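Data deposition worksheet. Section B asks for the primary sequence of the deposited chain exactly as it was used as input, without tags or linkers unless they were present during the calculation. Section C holds the resulting structure in token form. Section D is free text for depositor observations; keep each observation to a single sentence. Incomplete worksheets are returned to the depositor.
Section A, Depositor: J.P.
Section B:
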Amino acid sequence: MKNIAKNLGFMLITAGLTFGCNPLQLDDIQDPNNPSVGSIANNATSQQIQFLITGLESRHRGYVTNISQAWNTFGREVWYLNASDPRFQTDWLGQNGRVPDRSYFGFGNTGGGSWASPYQAIKQADVLQLAAANTTNITDSQKSAVVGFAKTIQGYQFMIPANFVYQNGIRMEVSDPLNPGPFVPYEQALDQIKIILDEGFQALGSSGTGNFPFKLTSGFTSFNTISGLQQVNRAITARLNAYRKDWSGVLTALDASFMDLNGDLKKGPAHPYGAAPDIFNPLFYVPNAAINTIVVVHPSVLDDATPGDLRVQNKFLKRTNPVTVTTDAGALVGTHQDARWVNNTAPIPFIRNEELILLKAEAHANLNQATDAIAAINIIRIAAGIGSYTGATTQAALINEILYQRRYSLWAEPWGHRWIDARRYDRLNQIPTSYDKGAIFTQFPHPQAELSWDNYVGN
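Section C:
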């Protein structure tokens, strides 16, 4: 992953964003050590295309810290305890009537990892596609492969702001930062994301077979072939189709993904991290370190766990000294910390086989195919050491079971699964607030800078 940091300066030139204005606007920077946007858009070299791909992978992981800390707090998977700044507790937990506004703490005017970072990745992918289209230095099949990869990442990234602001809608047309498209409703945005992912899948298929023609980081080690990237694309599409409630579409996408009912549940593409000049894994905390800024397991997750669940044993480390932070609503005590990462350079998967199997279970349950749903559920339960499912086989009972298993299998992954799951099944009121006397948020408004940009462009 060192190449990501090494080439970061080039990437910032090609798709850097002005945080004070619009996250879609390219910086006008004159740097004699790096090519201009214009030179990249006109007959880019193969090396320049490679730099853009590496930069896209860097942008692709920009959301991880903010969403892992914030969205998982909204869903009460974790608390992000920070004694230096109480707003990480009071504001993110909605204590004392605090509600999201356009300058909500931790997101600021540009939306941080929940808004600006995804659009930065989307814009990076636009520049990459532009460069590939306007060069004679790579073959047509290489161009198709580049477009397929870029659109796959765009599909993933568009889902982040869509789920952040939800029914407030997002911009899907952002290729021209001086003339961005209108906000479109959540359901319409999901449909348009589906088109992007399908286009990416088809572009990859048009590029031939064999290895992806450019170098990807170690996060794609098992997926750096054309077929491997198509499998990743379909895995992302399966997640999207669940949000679209296209249950047959979930199953179709899964059949073309890397889902393996008998395979490693941890298998999947990942965001890699490394030592300087790269960045460290932002979710790693030294075990039992004497600190008061740390992500801890939410008490309800511990209270509701099934006895003997190996996921609890493997993911949660009981601290020798609990972390206590005082808030407006009383003390928050973290007794367990995240134990998933062996060190500060461990990669963070962004979609895994375990999620795909649970998506299969969910699709079958919603299609009233109880036998198939239970078979998928049992793969997860047996791997967790809690035995086969013996409950009711009604659709409602199976959905309850699947959401429960998702809560522990996908705990605190950089997506906020429980917050999104509770919202899409109209169960936000089931997320407990008694431990912190807070509130549960449904969605967020657009950052103020996003609306200010409309006024600026209009003038």
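Section D:
Residues 2-275+349-432 form a domain with the Serine Threonine Protein Phosphatase 5, Tetratricopeptide repeat fold (CATH 1.25.40.390).
The mean pLDDT is 91.
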